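Notes from the 1:1 (GR / supervisor)

We went over the backlog. Supervisor wanted to see one worked example end to end before approving the batch request, so GR pasted a single chain during the call. The sequence is below; no edits were made to it. Supervisor asked that the structure be written out right there so they could see what the output format looks like.
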Amino acid sequence: MDKFGLIGFPIKKSLSPMLFKEAYHGRWQYDLIEGEEFEASWKSFLDSYKGINITAPFKELAYAESEILCPECKVIGATNLVVKTPEGLVAHNSDYSGVKKCIEDEHIAKGSKALVVGCGGAGKAAAVAALDLGLDLIVINRTPEKAEEFARHLEGFYPGRVEALPFEEMAGAAGKCAIMIYTLPLAVDGAEALRCPVIMEANYKNPTFDAGKLAAEGIRYVPGKKWHLMQAVLGYEFFTGEVPDIEAMAELYR
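Structure output shown during the call:
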């Protein structure tokens, strides 16, 4: 029987096994393959699994090991889902498709600005999704050199539509944008005070923002659990070829 799993570190508290179980009512096995060393986790996948999800800090390493890259992976430079096929190891990025669906649901006008905070795997996926939906982009990262490098990379695909700003300009940048997508794994000083008409974040376990407070201020908030759900819904079909049970998956977040 085909088996699937998740690699990354740390992942002990991941919701992914429960999501996969609900998605297909327990018909396939899904394991947490936890370990600090990428090489050992990747070998476990190659030896025993048909497909794997990948989370931090392994998304870029898995991309480098994949043999066939979907178009968005080539731009992002990272993957969060690899599946074995007769043609080779195929890399997808359901972080990209998940966040793209979340942004689409907010009906933001093309030509508006989006701020992406963080240039890890999730941030890169969010940046490319926003650009593909016709939004111009500001990227900010705690390490400014990483933001500048990523902005230069994106300029090769989306000329004239990307800029990198210093981390200390984050609040001012948020005020100029129609949507902010916060992808840092932890809150940084002042993050909870950031304001934008739409705020979306990647963290579904320990959110940075107070949903009730934002709603009281008239700010639309898209929680990390929606992004997490959408990337699973849109990604699992690559593993199994079958549409998952979305309602059963969504129930886990309620």
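Supervisor's comment: The two ends are 31 Å apart (CA to CA).
Batch request approved.
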